[in-house]
Structure formats: C-alpha cells, structure tokens
Amino acid sequence: MNDLLKGKKGIIFGALNDKSIAWQVALKCHEQGAQFVLTNAPIAMRMGEINKLAETCNNAKIIACDVSKNEDMENLITQSLEILGGKVDFILHSVGMSLNIRKGRTYTDLDYKWTHETYDISSVSLHRLLQTCYKMDAISEWGSVVALTYIAAQRVFPDYSEMADSKALLESIGRSFGYHYGKSKKVRINTISQSPTKTTAGSGVKGFGDFFDYAAALSPLGNANAEACADYCVVMFSDLTRMVTMQNLFHDGGFSNTGFSQDVFSLMQNKGE
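-> structure tokens emitted (273 positions)
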C-alpha cells in the first residue's frame, strides 16, 4: 500500500545514522507521503549524520532538543507546529541512554546520579513530551505516538542494567498517558518492543553479539530488523490502527512467546565445540 501517511505531519526523535531505527522510520514515512521534523540531542546531532537524512526526506527541518529540559521540549513543539503549519499527527519517541552501561557499571553497583539521568532521558522524556503536547494541544485527534522499548522491561537481561527499569517505566507512561490523551483528544499512545537490533546504542551493550544470535535462533521468524520495525511504525501512525492504544506491541519475530527451539540447542552446541 502506498500513501498511508499522505497529508500527515509528525516529529521523529532519535535518528543518528542509517543504523538507527528512527532513521529507517523517517525514510518510510517520507515514502508514504508524510511531512515531518527531525530532532535529536545537540551532541548526537554533532556525532551523527542527520543532515544527510534531512536532505533525503525533502529537506526536512532539524531542531535540536535535550529531552531532559522542559524549555527544549517546549521549543521543539512550538517550532514544529510553526514549520508544519498546524498540529502533528504522529510522533516517534526513539530515545535511550545509560551512562552506567557506557562506563561499565554493573546493576549491583550503579552510580545513582547516572541512573537518574538514564530515567530522565530514556523514559521520563516520554512523559515530558506528552505533557507538553497535551498542554499545547499539539496533536490532532486520532493522532498516534509510538515509543520504542525492549522486552527487558518484563524479563531479566543482566547486562541491560538499569535500562530495563527505564523501559518498564516508559511502558507504564505509555499506558497511563494513553488513557488521559485518549479520553481527551482520541490520541493513541503505544510502545513497540523491538528485537535486538544492530544500532549504535544496542551494539554497545555487553554481550550484544551473542544475544543477537540467540534471539535470532529462538524466534521462529528470526530477528526483526530496523527496516521492518519502521514498516510497523508506519502502520501504527496510519489510520489503519485507529483503535489501538495503551498497548505494548511485540515486534520480535515471536521471541517473546517462544520458550525453546532446536535452533537454540544447535547454537549452544556449536558454541561449545
């Protein structure tokens, strides 16, 4: 199907480079006829290649935003409404950062200042975004907000550290704000729990390569890649999913519902040889 998002306007957080899920979402949204603003943290914009993406997507405007600052979020929404000429129809929240993981601190030895920053950036930022939009009446009726999460919110993956707690909070915010925004403006809010994906951030988690292989072996369909996740996001932004809200939607090739498989057994045998 073509033009699923024709005439729709949005904001996409988190595109760093072509490995980013947000980058692929932007490309897919552009293909499907959407107009949007791109945003990321100032430091990420300096490190990444977001200008290249913007050129590809009909010279989309780029606005820097530190998601931990109220004033930055307010500025982002205000400028986006001006650039796009009215309310937005969709938003992708693809934001996550853990200094504890970056610095090699284990879950049993967290630096709490860094942990607070993890929660503020990776999950409270969704509430800050939604609250800002709610107060400014920035999202059209039947609009759609999607935040990316991970199954570590429900199951223990030791090396994912406090990001697991952060994702659990993110999903809770999606449900809670989803109720209020749904009752008030018919805006729907969902989280997508994605397969382990070879993004810049994901690849930085200890043991990522081994777990990526394990997840691919366990999942009957294999791991869902960034491009497939982008397709799913497009569907969630479209009018085809108008009655879906407050859900945590697994996009993981069946990993979340599979206990064991012969492929996993074979993988373990091969690694043991």
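The chain has one domain: 9-207+223-258.
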